[in-house]
Design a protein that fits this description.
Asparagine--tRNA ligase; 15 helices; 16 strands; 32% helix; single chain; binds magnesium ion; 480 residues; BirA Bifunctional Protein, domain 2; alpha+beta; OB fold (Dihydrolipoamide Acetyltransferase, E2P); nucleotide-binding; NA-bd_OB_tRNA; eight-stranded mixed β-sheet; ATP binding; 22% strand; binds 4-amino-1,4-dioxobutan-2-aminium adenosine-5'-monophosphate
Length: 480
């Protein structure tokens, strides 16, 4: 007997054959109609049980949340809402779910807030919203690999435990095997990391970029795709302490090439989602339409979810220098009316997400690539421009998200990089291997990092980054 997942069953629709399905009960109406979902698709299959033919004790075990196996004939459905259904000839409850306990969980059939779902993160993938988000997340990850593999990139695995701070921002989680109450001390009373597992201080990586650079300078075009960790105390809807980053790095590529790559890559991955995830996108789109109805008119979005995705794919990203952006912001209405929390009064100011979102959502009304930022608000490794004030940095800004990509052309000149590191207090001993790259066949090279969860947020329309990763890590939260 064929055991098919519901996705396959619904796409093949082998009418009048006997089929077996396994899944979790979403609803059971009139002791007769089971809506079964197995996670393969957002769609449930309706299974019709003639309850008079089965012992009452067995029927009573069919409850919301229970795992069941059902066998029967696939027929055209008489009812509305589905084309086909299964006329059940036999069934077996594989795993019970006590209705009294289910009532207390998010599995119970009523609207639960996203906050409530987060409190039961181990169950939330059984809801339509999280099923859809997590299937999309998986497809997007595949779309990422597909793009790079089809464009001559090699997948490089950057280490998770590192001895350096790739961003120089000091936001690292320490890795140690010491008993913190009883760690060996140096003569001056500090912790003696020379006696630790790696004979030195180590931390979880904040970015695989520096290692990716070394591999690009041997394999030509590489990308990383892995978890990265930041101990930044940001409780926002865009920040996680553990997030997945995609970091391509390309030898002999300058900032223009880097911008082209970022734009082409993002469009291609979004197109992949549009081509392969229509059922889930449709569901999430309707979810947003419902959510919008609860908002005041001026906060509702002008486009539906899929319209927004098409809009990104079909339009050229606007490329603007930091200097131009500052001019626009300085003269903008919210700045003059003191509506920005951080007013813009001079060149050199770091841009906050309120500014990025103004540029994207109000001014240009399309994705924007800002480039040539002031050197002192960006990381040490970025290529210094001839003006000696700005660096070849770029950020891709998205509507609703703000920064989705950060990248740059890298400083390939040994002396310039060394001076910069000294000026920014980056310890040379720790990064001599990185400097060495500039000694042995240095070349122009560039890359960027895309925060995978921010991409998933954009594509699914989810407002909070905690709702696009299975088990979010944020300040004060690592329960599951
Ligand atoms: O701009 P960032 O810090 O750049 C880098 O890490 C570079 N080393 C990348 C490179 O050039 N190879 O981070 C890159 C992207 C951001 O644009 C954002 O999308 C995401 O990573 N990101 C975060 N996502 C979720 N939570 C956080 N705390 C994030 N911090 C950065
Ligand atoms: Mg950045």
């Amino acid at each position: 007997m064929r055991y098919l997942d519901i996705q396959t069953l619904l796409s093949e629709e082998p009418l009048l054959t006997e089929v077996t399905v396994k899944g979790w009960v979403r609803s059971f109406r009139s002791n007769r109609f089971v809506a079964l979902n197995d996670g393969s698709t957002i769609k449930n299959i309706q299974c019709v049980i003639d309850f008079e033919q089965f012992p009452t004790q067995e029927i009573e075990r069919i409850n919301i949340g229970s795992a069941v196996q059902l066998t029967g004939t696939l027929v055209e459905s008489q009812g509305q809402g589905q084309k086909v259904e299964i006329q059940v000839s036999s069934f077996q409850v594989l795993g019970d779910a006590d209705p009294e306990e289910v009532k207390l969980t998010i599995l119970s059939p009523k609207r639960h807030s996203l906050e409530k779902l987060r409190e039961q993160a181990h169950l939330r993938v059984r809801t339509n919203t999280f099923g859809a988000v997590m299937r999309l997340r998986s497809k997007l990850a595949f779309g990422v690999h597909k793009y790079f593999q089809e464009n001559g990139f090699y997948y490089m695995h950057a280490p998770i435990i590192t001895g350096s701070d790739a961003e120089g921002a000091g936001e690292m989680f320490r890795v140690t095997t010491f008993d913190l109450n009883n760690a060996p001390l140096t003569e001056d009373g500090g912790i003696d990391y020379k006696q630790d597992f790696f004979d030195k201080e180590t931390n979880l990586t904040v970015s695989g970029q520096l290692e990716a650079e070394t591999y690009a300078m041997g394999l030509g075009k590489v990308y990383t795709f892995g978890p990265t960790f930041r101990a930044e105390n940001s409780n926002t809807s865009r920040h996680l302490a553990e997030f997945w980053m995609i970091e391509p790095e390309v030898a002999f590529c300058d900032l223009d090439g880097n911008m082209d790559l970022a734009e082409d890559f993002i469009k291609s991955v979004i197109q992949y989602a549009l081509d392969n995830c229509d059922d889930d996108l449709e569901f999430l789109e309707n979810r947003l339409i419902q959510e919008d109805k609860t908002k005041p008119q001026n906060e509702r979005s002008e486009m539906t979810l899929r319209e927004r995705l098409h809009f990104v794919v079909d339009n050229t990203f606007k490329r603007v220098t930091y200097t131009e952006a500052i001019d626009i912001l300085k003269n903008s209405k919210p700045n003059k009316k003191k509506k920005f929390k951080f007013p813009i009064d001079e060149w050199g100011a770091d841009l906050q997400s309120e500014h990025e979102r103004f540029l994207v959502e109000k001014h240009f009304k399309c994705p924007v690539i800002l480039f040539d930022y002031p050197a002192n608000i960006k990381a040490f490794y970025m290529r210094l421009n001839e003006d000696e004030k700005t660096v070849r940095a770029m950020d891709v800004l998205f509507p609703g998200i703000g920064e989705i990509v950060g990248g740059s052309q890298r400083e390939e000149r040994y002396d310039v990089l060394l001076d910069k590191m000294k000026a920014m207090d980056i310890p040379q001993e720790e990064l001599q291997w990185y400097l060495d790259l500039r000694k042995f066949g240095t070349a122009v090279h560039s890359g960027f990092g895309l925060g995978f969860e921010r991409l998933v947020q954009f594509v699914t329309g989810m407002g909070n980054i905690r709702d696009v990763i299975p088990y979010p890590r944020t300040p004060g939260n690592a329960k599951f």
